[in-house]
Design a protein that fits this description.
Layout lengths: L6 H10 L5 E2 L13 H12 L5 E7 L3 E9 L15 E2 L4 H14 L21 E5 L5 E4 L7 H6 L11 H12 L21 H13 L3 H13 L10 H4 L6 E3 L5 E3 L18 E2 L1 H12 L3 E2 L2 E2 L3 H7 L31 E3 L4 E3 L11 E6 L3 E6 L4 E6 L2 E2 L4 H16 L5
Parallel strand pairs: 7-17
Antiparallel strand pairs: 1-3, 2-3, 2-16, 4-9, 5-6, 7-8, 10-11, 12-13, 13-14, 14-15, 15-16
Helix pairs in contact: 2-11, 3-6, 3-7
């Protein structure tokens, strides 16, 4: 009997090419993923043009890794080459792990989505809202109109806002440094009022700790990283992992890159739900594959299929998301990854309501880390990808250009011959 070639199977065959696919991380010994000369040329070209010092990129379907490549140097001026297992600081990409952790606890009934979060963490019930500034520049505060919920915190509709992308936050913290008694971190709008990228996931991390009775790093290890075989994802890294770490590079005014020293091995790290974690491209891609597999991978289930569906759907309704105007160009450029595309927020990541030309389909999920690490999950195409660099400022124009070229290269491989 001849098997029927469905659109999904045709896509998998086109993505795989003629070579054997590599199974997901943690599976049996495997052949290398098929090479893609087009994508290799894109990423090597980024290094040759000195647009990036080095880059690691990978993509997968739900079944297997379909591309991996490492190009350039971990640190300019040194012989250490990028490798697939290079360790990166992935900053805000920890927010997806934090969101997974919180939704696991929602599944078990230990965290409610829509009740006041102050029922779990009392500190969240006493945070005032900034309403403006008086004629002398003094902040004006009042009680919020609604309580903060876990849903608000997960979708950046809680009222917390990063000063890096919020002028009012910059102004408030400047005043707070001069005035005793002002709250350390207020809300900048009432919960459910709008979307603003901020520190809500730090608060979610604390909720996870309280509800689970485990420190956040231990919770991640026990319930996400260990089950999935993510051995290089942690707030603290070993000496062997540090030897594989990529240096941060800063883009200077003339466009060249300056390598910065690695952080000190004994430098204290906060275990935050919003940032400050290390990982590798294979580790993070494993997490993305679990999403393509409805919460399971290699026999480990970290989420129920219904929860993955919830995390993959628009949770902000008509409230737009994803556009951020920088207050500090040295740290971040203005952020608009998909001009003209309608963007909202799911649980853990941004969702595009419209398809992206030559790339991901509508309903794809994405986010990033401050040092120009990026990922996407495209359930409709059954593709996920991750690309890691270590550059400031965030949303670096050259880094984003090569990210887009990498994505387009993956989807070109998906077109029927």
């Amino acid at each position: 009997m001849t098997a029927r070639l469905t659109r999904r199977n045709a896509l998998l065959l086109a993505l795989a090419g003629a070579s054997t696919l590599r199974p997901a991380a943690g599976a049996a010994p495997q052949q290398a993923p098929p090479r893609n000369p087009d994508i290799d040329s894109i990423l090597q070209g980024a290094v040759n043009a000195r647009d990036v010092p080095g880059v690691v990129a990978m993509a997968a379907t739900d079944r297997a890794v379909i591309y991996e490549g490492a190009f350039g140097l971990r640190c300019l001026g040194t012989p250490a080459k990028m490798s697939i297992d290079t360790v990166f600081r992935i900053a805000s990409m920890v927010k997806l792990l934090t969101s997974v952790a919180a939704l696991q606890l929602v599944e078990s009934g230990k965290l409610p989505l829509d009740e006041p979060a102050s029922n779990i963490d009392a500190e969240l019930g006493s945070i005032p809202v900034l309403t403006g500034f008086d004629a002398k520049g003094n902040p004006q505060l009042r009680a919020p109109l609604r309580p903060i919920t876990l849903r608000n915190l997960l979708t950046h509709t809680s009222g917390f806002s990063y000063p890096l992308w919020d002028d009012n936050a910059v102004r408030y913290y400047a005043a707070a440094r001069k005035t005793k008694g002002l709250p350390r971190r207020p809300l900048f709008f009432d919960p459910d009022g709008k979307w603003s990228y901020g520190g809500g996931l730090d608060k979610v991390g604390r909720l996870v700790e309280i509800a689970s009775g485990e420190p956040l790093d231990r919770y991640f290890h026990n319930h996400i990283c260990q089950p999935l075989g993510m051995k290089n994802t942690s707030f603290e890294i070993t000496a062997a992992q540090r030897a594989r770490e990529a240096n941060l590079h800063v883009r200077k005014a003339d466009g060249t890159l300056l390598a910065k020293p690695l952080e000190k091995a004994n430098e204290p790290h906060s275990h935050s739900g919003g940032g400050g974690i290390y990982s590798t491209a294979p580790d993070y891609l494993t997490l993305l594959q679990a999403f393509l597999n409805s919460g399971s991978l290699n026999g480990a289930q970290i989420l129920k299929p219904a929860t993955v569906a919830l995390m993959s759907s628009n949770q902000t309704g008509d409230i737009a998301a994803g556009l951020m105007k920088s207050t500090s160009p040295a740290l971040s450029n203005d952020v608009d990854f998909f001009p003209g595309v309608r963007l909202r927020w799911a649980f853990g990541h941004m969702i595009n309501l419209d398809p992206v030309k030559e790339g991901r389909k509508a309903g794809s999920l994405t986010w990033a880390g401050l040092y120009n690490t990026y990922y996407w999950i495209d359930p409709a195409s059954n593709v996920a990808g991750v690309i890691m660099m270590q550059i400031l400022p965030f949303a670096d124009v050259r880094a984003l250009d090569h990210y887009r070229k990498f994505e387009r290269g993956i989807y070109r491989g998906a077109k029927p011959a």
